[in-house]
């Protein structure tokens, strides 16, 4: 989206623009920002929706999966008529109806070293909505290499984790400082075996979108170097500081 504010654009985002931390200049920053979302499931759906509603200029969405019946209780951009369709195509259509000014680029791929390298530099901010650690570590390593901001989310049962990594700051830890590859299993993120309450996905994804907007505007208190832990069954919330691990790749 062009950063020029027409009368209609000002009206569309008037409730944001009136905020003293955003204003006209802040809205222009949002309109000119480029965000890539990996995974269009329970986390990626609210991220894409609320970033487009905020006015993000360019949105990249990555997923090679199709909509299934079991997705519908938590993946908010899909409905029954979308079953069997590719998620990225459904999301592009929905986002263009929500905000036709947001340019949506779709990547119907399973992310790997080669294809991620080709697209990462087209975006300023990377959002991780994936459901496996192989992808999460791939995002971590590439964002570290290319000095991108990465907002990572993870959900299971009634719990959510959110990390923000500003890899322009060499003093801060990375995802590998918290999760060690040899000691984890994708079962931790498996909604099929572990279960997930749909509202948990929506809340965590919305917080991820909120963190991206704060980063774009450089406002508020962020999660650089911290993990935000939510238990929505008992309404427990913690913000825990992360430390760099010895011999980690981010050292």
Biggest sheet strand line-up:
3-2-1-4-5-6-7-8
Which runs of at least 5 residues are low in confidence (pLDDT < 50)?
A: none
* Structural class by secondary-structure content: alpha/beta
Q: In the CATH hierarchy, what is the class? A: Alpha Beta
Total beta strand runs: 8
Count up the domains. Answer: 1
Distance between the termini: 37 Å
Element order, helices and strands? HHHEHEHEHEHEEHHHEE
Tell me the major beta sheet.
8 strands, mixed
State the helicity in percent bands: 25-40%
Topology:
Blueprint: H1 7-12, H2 14-17, H3 23-31, E1 34-38, H4 44-54, E2 58-62, H5 87-98, E3 103-107, H6 113-119, E4 125-128, H7 133-146, E5 149-156, E6 159-166, H8 175-178, H9 191-194, H10 198-217, E7 226-231, E8 236-241
Parallel strand pairs: 1-2, 1-4, 2-3, 4-5
Antiparallel strand pairs: 5-6, 6-7, 7-8
Helix pairs in contact: 4-10
């Amino acid at each position: 989206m062009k950063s020029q504010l027409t009368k209609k654009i000002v009206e569309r985002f008037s409730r944001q623009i009136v905020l003293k931390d955003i204003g006209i200049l802040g809205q222009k920053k949002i309109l000119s920002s480029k965000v890539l979302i990996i995974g269009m499931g329970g986390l990626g759906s609210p991220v894409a929706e609320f970033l487009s509603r905020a006015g993000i200029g360019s949105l990249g969405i990555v997923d090679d999966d199709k909509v299934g019946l079991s997705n519908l209780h938590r993946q908010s951009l899909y409905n029954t008529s979308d079953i069997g369709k590719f998620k990225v195509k459904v999301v592009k259509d929905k986002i263009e109806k929500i905000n036709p000014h947001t340019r949506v680029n779709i990547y119907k791929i399973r992310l790997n070293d080669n294809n991620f390298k080709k697209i990462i530099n087209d975006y300023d901010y990377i959002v991780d909505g994936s459901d496996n650690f192989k992808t999460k570590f791939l995002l971590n390593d590439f964002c570290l290499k290319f000095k991108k901001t990465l907002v990572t989310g993870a959900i299971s049962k009634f719990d959510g984790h959110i990390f923000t990594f500003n890899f322009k700051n060499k003093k801060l830890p990375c995802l590998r400082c918290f999760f060690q590859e040899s000691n984890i299993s994708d079962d931790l993120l498996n909604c099929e075996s572990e279960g997930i309450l749909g509202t948990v996905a929506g809340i965590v994804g919305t917080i991820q979108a909120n963190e991206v907007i704060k980063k774009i505007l450089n406002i508020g208190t962020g999660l650089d170097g911290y993990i935000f832990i939510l238990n929505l069954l008992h309404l427990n919330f913690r913000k825990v500081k992360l430390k760099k691990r010895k011999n980690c790749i981010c050292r």
